[in-house]
Specification:
Layout: E1 9-13, E2 17-23, E3 32-37, E4 40-45, E5 48-49, E6 65-66, E7 70-74, E8 85-89, E9 92-98
Antiparallel strand pairs: 1-2, 2-9, 3-4, 4-7, 5-6, 8-9
Length: 110
């Protein structure tokens, strides 16, 4: 039995960006892929498996496993994909997605 859980995600929208914080503890930066394709932002993590080990005074073997996950979001119109930034600090991936505020556009009906 392998329990399946989704990472905790917090999404905030400001006047000029969408900011995503995603809990991904125990990974290294190289285990995380952030891509944008056809207007969809995707965050994928590798299927990581720790090695079994036995402590000096341990009577049992301990191992850890982290199964990969993928999360995706459709991006709104106006997103500046070439200015998206990411940061991975203390087990949290931060993604900042800047966008242009375009205001209201009225289209005349003919």
């Amino acid at each position: 039995f392998i329990p399946v859980t989704e990472p905790a995600v917090n999404i905030d929208k400001t006047e000029s960006s969408i900011d995503i914080q995603m809990s991904l503890p125990g990974l290294s930066r190289s285990d995380i892929d952030v891509t944008v394709e056809n207007g969809v932002l995707t965050v994928s993590t590798a299927d990581c498996r720790g090695e079994d080990y036995r402590g000096e005074n341990a009577s049992s073997v301990t191992a850890w496993t982290s199964h990969g996950t993928t999360s995706a979001w459709a991006l709104p119109v106006g997103v500046q994909i070439h200015q998206i930034t990411t940061r991975y600090v203390a087990g949290v991936l931060e993604v900042s997605i800047p966008f242009e505020t375009t205001g209201l556009l009225t289209i005349p009906v003919e």
